[in-house]
Design goal:
The structure holds 2 protein chains of 2 kinds.
Chain A lengths: L1 H28 L4 H6 L5 H11 L5 H14 L1 E4 L4 E4 L14 H36 L4 H15 L2 H15 L15 H35 L2 H8 L4 H28 L4 H7 L4 H10 L3 H29 L7
Antiparallel strand pairs in A: 1-2
Helix pairs in contact in A: 1-13, 5-6, 5-8, 5-10, 5-13, 6-8, 7-8, 7-11, 8-10, 9-10, 10-13, 11-12, 12-13
Chain B lengths: L6 E12 L2 E13 L4 E5 L6 H8 L9 E8 L2 E2 L5 H11 E4 L13 H12 L4 H14 L5 H4 L9 H14 L4 E5 L7 H18 L2 E6 L2 H7 L2 E6 L2 E7 H6 L4 H9 L16 E12 L6 E12 L3 E6 L5 H8 L7 E6 L2 E2 L5 H8 L2 E4 L13 H11 L5 H14 L16 H14 L4 E5 L7 H18 L2 E6 L2 H7 L2 E6 L2 E7 H6 L4 H9 L5 H16 L1
Helix pairs in contact in B: 2-3, 3-4, 3-6, 4-6, 6-7, 7-19, 13-14, 13-15, 14-15, 15-16
Classes of the chains: A mainly alpha, B alpha/beta.
């Protein structure tokens, strides 16, 4: 197993390298002048040229990429016109916009995104797997039909509509909660939870529709298998058949899909973050793209890539633990 | 004594709702089975025999099937039983042994835990005690090192061991009746013999009654006192096993029995053989590299002549399918030599191989899986013609009609899709497709093992007819020794990737030289109950030796 993990981690490094090359390539193919945007509206061409020189944009794309790699592996010095700052490895560069170290920026934003993603996952696992299981057991009945409509509605409603509706209902109309504003976990755990509640519910409900359908279909599939018949034929009660045998077979696919979703959410659930004003990676990425702030974009993409790869390794390990027929190589 | 029999089925009907209307799977069946007795329900697929087995345990409840008539097992009225009584019936009074031992156990739990779970339904004991009971019964059915192996998952067991584990599960609760639905169908013949012997022994020891559901008359002859032959949900004939199998009175039973290939049945009359078509020398095939390398075929030499059938017989994992695929170059050999009419084709590059591809064709085992379900059978049969470069649509149509007619299908069914055909008809389509390219040699890999015996007989007859007419060389790969004996001129017995014995049918079956061949032959179930008992003795001798 150790070998498997090491192999996968080595693979992860390659994936991240490929990703960074891709982002750099896209960046140079895209229109727009980051120097002009970084300098501000009132800059004259000389000033813009100066900024461009400072940001190193006059070097060839290849050289810039090498500098990026150098920063990641050994750290590098940045001159900001007046002074030189050292940026330790792993250095993802300085933001074109405000000279902030991207590594630091990303690390600052990560907790907000992580709390959103993990909390939402708890909701979608509880709600999604719960409804999926229920509709599998009550198939053909009114309950199932109602749940099918609900999950369809859930998949069909854009996440920002869902979020807005929740905001309006809970904060404006019923006034159960104040409008959420992000409070870091370290500062005040209780406030953190209360303020994250709506974002969690929004993202969690939105995702749970998918999990309900996944759970339903894999439970039904398992229930149709021969070994279920065996236990029924030996007098094992229906509840036990479902809880012990059918659910067990339905879990592995849910694990696999959850891991991928969780990973990609670390790139930021952009809409949810924007809607609730959560200072997370999604918002950062959006701003970075808008201002053609290459180091920020690359930085967020690297975090997202790492999260996806790690989540997949974790999913494989969990999958193998859940299903002993799976051999990790 | 006026005590009622253990199983009393009277006027049982079972109907399933289908889109096309209700289908009556069982139609007015009545029988009884006394304590400690054994009855076999014998019939071809679709005869309703498994449906009857399910009805004994009330397994049709809640499935939408309509059950009529009455079924009483151990004094319990199955149709009227409440949930608690039904639970007692299932496992406690009557225990079911299912067909496919791989899928019949939960892949996620240890075998011992599954047996313990079932045991605790019927006996209020601690987990530990139930676990101990599981180990005890696993040991009883001959799982070596039962305490340790009880912690294994089903996939870590071989097919035979899984079937033993299922028997152990049934035994654990000490039922009065074992209902065994095709308990040995998925197993190799030697393993089948072991399981049947075990079943025999366990019944002698515990006095459990047995209801055996099987399509294999030989398996029934080995195991029961009475036989009930079923067809289309009705009883055709019932009586003591020796009587029904020895002197059947119903025409259907006679037809069924005459279609069963036997080790003492007629063999082919030798005919004129033509030139040598295919020759293999030291043919090898490995899969994987390094430590995980497996040698599937390990130095096989054989020859097939025009107009001749070479039977290749072996158990699962013996390498016979790998060999068959190499013979038509669907798989590349990793060693040895393969010659077709003198040309070395074993390592010929694909481009140069093309002219020979046409002449070497294959018929596959599973006629469902080997035909594309989304294309009409006519199109499937036309494929080899198109590959050979034929472009003229009318000529293609004409030729396909001719082929359909030749294999005994209606030529107007060009546009029909595979699911509209029965298993036997689909296999005929497979044969027509192989014939389309006008081959000289056809490798048939288990061509009849998915078919009922009567259909089996028709397909083998068709192959023999085509061979006589076209002078085809045939390689007939199968696990069924009796079928191979019936269709072949010469036979090769495979084990572990090697041919352990090769010769004419008379040599191999009449005077087997290799101990493995002898073991295989002793394991084939006999239609004669007396002979079956004799064979059982011989198997024990062979096992002891």
């Amino acid at each position: 197993m150790t070998r498997f993990v090491l192999k996968r981690l080595a693979g992860a490094v390659l994936v991240l390298l490929a990703l960074s090359v891709l982002v750099y390539a896209l960046f140079y193919l895209a229109p727009g002048d980051p120097a002009r945007l970084a300098c501000g509206e009132r800059c004259n061409p000389q000033q813009i040229a100066q900024v461009r020189e400072q940001l190193g944009l006059n070097d060839s794309a290849f050289v810039q990429y090498l500098h990026f790699l150098q920063g990641v592996f050994t750290g590098r010095d940045h001159s900001t016109g007046t002074s030189v700052t050292h940026c330790d490895a792993p250095c993802l560069g300085l933001s074109y916009q405000n000279d902030q170290q991207v590594t630091q920026l990303v690390l600052e934003r990560l907790p907000a995104t992580a709390s959103l993603a993990l909390g939402a996952m708890v909701i979608w696992l509880l709600v999604g797997v719960g409804t999926g299981l229920l509709s599998a057991l009550r198939r053909g009945g009114v309950t199932e039909r109602a749940l099918t409509v609900l999950t369809l509605a859930g998949t069909g409603t854009p996440v920002f509509i869902l979020g807005l509706l929740l905001l309006m209902a809970v904060c404006a109309y019923l006034q159960w909660l104040p409008f959420p504003s992000y409070v870091p976990l370290g500062e005040d755990p209780e406030q953190w939870a209360w303020n994250m509640l709506l974002p969690w519910l929004t993202l969690g409900f939105f995702e749970s529709a998918k999990y309900a359908r996944l759970t339903r279909s894999s439970t039904l599939e398992t229930l149709a298998e021969d070994h279920i018949r065996t236990f029924r034929a030996y007098g094992v009660g229906e509840r036990s058949v479902v809880a012990r045998h059918a659910l067990r077979g339905a879990v592995p696919p849910v694990i696999a899909v959850s891991a991928v979703d969780l990973g990609s959410m670390f790139g930021g659930a952009v809409l949810t973050e924007s809607l609730f004003g959560i200072p997370g990676l999604g918002k950062t990425l959006l701003d970075g793209v808008r201002t053609i702030d290459l180091p920020v974009v690359v930085g967020v993409v690297m975090v997202m890539g790492t999260a996806v790869v790690l989540a997949n390794v974790l999913a494989d390990l969990l999958y193998a633990a859940a299903d002993r027929r799976v051999v990790l190589t | 004594m006026t005590e009622s029999p253990l199983v009393e089925v009277s006027d049982l009907t079972v109907e399933f709702e289908r889109e096309a209307g209700a289908v009556r799977a069982v139609d007015g069946l009545s029988f009884t089975l006394g304590e400690g007795r054994a009855l076999a329900l014998v019939g071809e697929s679709g005869s309703g025999k498994s449906t009857v087995a399910g009805a004994l345990l009330g397994l049709h409840r809640g499935t939408g099937a309509r059950v009529g008539g009455s079924v009483r097992v151990g004094g319990i009225d199955v149709a009227a039983a409440g949930p608690a009584e039904l639970r007692r019936l299932r496992g406690g009074v009557a225990a079911m042994v299912f067909q496919d031992p791989l899928s019949a156990l939960d892949p996620y739990y240890a075998v011992g835990d599954q047996i313990a779970e079932v045991y605790r339904i019927h006996h209020p004991v601690s987990r530990k005690a139930a676990r101990a009971r599981a180990v005890e019964v696993l040991d009883r059915v001959g799982i070596p090192d039962a305490a340790r192996r009880s912690r294994s998952r089903p996939h870590e067991f071989s097919g035979g061991m899984r079937q033993r584990a299922l028997l152990a599960m049934a035994l654990a609760c000490e039922p009065k009746l074992l209902v065994a639905d095709e308990p040995t169908t998925a197993l190799d013949v030697t393993v089948q013999a072991q399981i049947l012997d075990l079943l025999h022994e366990l019944r002698r020891e515990t006095g459990t009654a047995l209801l055996l559901v099987t399509h294999d008359v030989g398996v029934a002859a080995e195991s029961v006192d009475e036989v009930l032959v079923m067809r289309d949900g009705r009883e055709v004939e019932r009586g003591p096993v020796a009587g029904v199998l020895g002197a059947p009175s119903a025409p259907y039973t006679r037809a069924l029995l005459s279609a069963v290939p036997r080790l003492d049945g007629p063999v082919r009359t030798p005919t004129e053989k033509g030139e040598t078509l295919l020759e293999a020398a030291g043919l090898r095939r490995e899969f994987g590299r390094g430590k995980v390398a497996v040698t599937a075929v390990d130095g096989v030499s054989l020859a097939v002549r025009a107009g001749e059938t070479l039977g290749v017989v072996g158990e699962s994992g013996s390498g016979k399918t790998t060999l068959g695929r190499m013979l038509v170059r669907l798989l590349d050999p990793t060693g040895g030599e393969l010659r077709y009419r003198g040309t070395r084709i074993g390592s010929l590059p694909e481009r140069e191989l093309r002219p020979y591809r046409r002449e070497l064709q294959m018929v596959f085992q599973d006629p469902v899986a080997s035909l594309n379900p989304r294309r009409s059978v006519g199109e499937s049969i036309a494929d080899p013609l198109r590959v050979a470069g034929e472009r003229d649509e009318t000529r293609i149509r004409g030729r396909v009609r001719e082929l359909l007619d030749r294999v005994g299908l209606d030529p107007d069914r060009y546009e029909a899709y595979p699911h509209e055909f029965s298993g036997g008809q689909r296999q005929r389509v497979g044969i027509a497709r192989a014939l389309a390219a006008e081959p000289r040699l056809i490798v048939c890999d288990e061509p009849v093992s998915a078919l009922d015996v009567t259909t089996q007989a028709q397909v083998t007859a068709l192959l023999a007819e085509l061979q006589a007419e076209l002078g085809l060389g045939l390689v007939f790969i199968a696990h069924d020794l009796a079928v191979v004996r019936q269709v072949s001129d010469r036979v090769a017995v495979m084990r572990g990737g090697r041919i352990v014995e090769q010769g004419t049918v008379a040599e191999v079956y009449g005077a087997p030289q290799d101990p493995y061949t002898r073991q295989l032959l002793a394991a084939v179930p006999s239609l004669d109950p007396v002979l079956a008992a004799e064979r059982r003795g011989r198997r024990q001798e062979l096992a002891a030796a």
